[in-house]
Amino acid sequence: MFGEITRLTRCGLCQRVPSVASALAPEESISHSVNRSSRVAFSKEIVDSILEDDDFNNDGYLTYLEYTMARRREDLIAESEEKDKAL
């Protein structure tokens, strides 16, 4: 598991996590196909953002090491912000 590389393609992630896209995309009273295309576009933006921020060697893959480094970075930023608020 730790040595595996996960290929995060735009459409691949959209297919794997439709619940994330539907939970985060704004609900509108428009047709299903338009709503689906907006969710797909929203999901593409999320994937692009993740790869831009977390794919440190820019190979289009997110390794477990890159994932853990990115999460640790986020934890350190959150801890720093909490300390700043306490002062």
UniProtKB/TrEMBL annotation:
Source organism, top-level taxon: Eukaryota
PROSITE patterns assigned: EF_HAND_1
Protein name: Uncharacterized protein
